[in-house]
């Protein structure tokens, strides 16, 4: 089978920034370390008044198409993954195509468009759909555009408020890709859960603590399923990008994942001299005693040099960008992948033909784990991104401005304010059509 995977990716942040240590913690009268150390987050990206899931998606897609020299007829499929859609019928991908048709000759009339929903895992599912479409030979030489876009906002005062974010990641899925090849083995962990949901409402109902447990349970199941197909070893992977609602969540998931994968390997033997071997269920009379022993072992594990070195090499780099932008829901795991590759490029780490283990998650709930092989073109692709410029140029909002912009994006409020930034060379939201549709225009 021809190699299929991610040929290029683009990152588009909301143009505002809420500083968690300076602004959020100060207003809440909290220790800033709760956010910067506990959750591992420094700032959240927010959309300005003229930005939304469509503008961020279309702006990411345009930069990607320009950079790769693509015309609309080169794209046979546009899938948008989001959990912030404002229409139960017309998919966001049609709005995005409409935007792009304003600036390119030609159209996307022969492209299959859709919208994928399964909380934060929908972006990964859309990539899977696109890979399968190409592998099945249905693409007629064309590539697929997959865009994960969200305004991840919580109700004011919700504990999740500190983990908000807004942005889009656009990815071109194609044969012989320049960034990564998606390997066929997949592990799934999936169950009917009510930890985080939006039953016909804009802001989520969240059981925060439960959602963290569910994340870990489903991720463990997915890893077990993956390992049944491909036995793994902690040193098999150069980077392990996780869905990152906040880096502290990944810190917990990484420890459990490492312990699981290290079991019955030379790593467990090497660690045994320092912290003993991992507890085995057959050595315990009851489940609770076994769980306590596992927790004790995991705590000791995370203190070892071997684990710290692995964590600094494979996990920490994937959190660098996420810590500055917050949770982008469907885009989050793709920000982690890009962040890890960006770190490697900036630090002269050679990733040609190295493996990534990509660990996606969506509430409700499902985890999926697959491997990707980094392609020799990865460095040029990552060098073409302008992530640092976007992050530095964000307008740093005060608490009062945050309150206003949260209202602007609240569907139940009709707040109208002047934007904090001036659009230039981008798609903007510019009002409502006669059937209540949102309208967009390109500003030179
Ligand atoms: N210095 C250092 N650390 C501190 C601190 C300080 N001064 N104060 C607190 N902390 C630590 C806490 O110990 C805690 O760390 P541990 O969990 O390792 O103990 C961390 O900071 C957070 O503190 P709290 O648990 O007290 O925070 P909270 O209860 O206010 O909120 C939350 C945490 C429940 C995750 C909340 O942010 C939330 O509801 N988030 C939304 C749901 C979410 O993101 N869930 C993640 C899994 S679900 C998912 O991944 C899907 C998705 O995208 C939403």
Topology of helices and strands:
Elements: E1 4-13, E2 16-19, H1 20-28, H2 32-39, E3 43-46, H3 53-68, E4 75-81, H4 92-103, E5 112-116, H5 122-135, E6 143-152, E7 165-175, E8 180-190, E9 196-197, E10 205-206, H6 208-229, H7 247-262, H8 266-275, H9 287-301, H10 305-314, H11 316-319, H12 322-325, H13 332-346, E11 355-362, E12 366-374, H14 378-383, H15 387-393, E13 395-396, H16 399-408, E14 426-432, E15 438-443
Parallel strand pairs: 2-13, 4-5, 4-6
Antiparallel strand pairs: 1-7, 1-8, 2-3, 6-7, 8-12, 9-10, 11-12, 14-15
Helix pairs in contact: 1-2, 3-4, 6-7
The structure holds acetoacetyl-coenzyme A.
Acetoacetyl-coenzyme A is lined by residues 31, 33-34, 37-39, 120, 159-160, 162-163, 196, 206, 208-209, 211-212, 215, 243, 245, 248-249, 327, 329, 361, 363.
Uncertain spans, ≥5 residues at pLDDT below 50?
none
Q: Write out the CATH superfamily name.
A: Thiolase/Chalcone synthase
| Main sheet overview | 8 strands, mixed
Shape: globular
CATH class: Alpha Beta
- Proportion in β-strands: 15-25%
Note the quaternary state here. single chain
Determine the number of helices (DSSP H or I, runs of at least 4 residues): 16
User: Which structural class do you get from the secondary structure elements?
Assistant: alpha+beta
Number of domains: 1
**Number of DSSP strand runs:** 15
Mean pLDDT: 97
Query: How far apart are the termini?
Result: 43 Å
C-alpha Rg, in Å?
Answer: 22 Å
Helicity level:
40-55%
The hetero molecules present are: acetoacetyl-coenzyme A
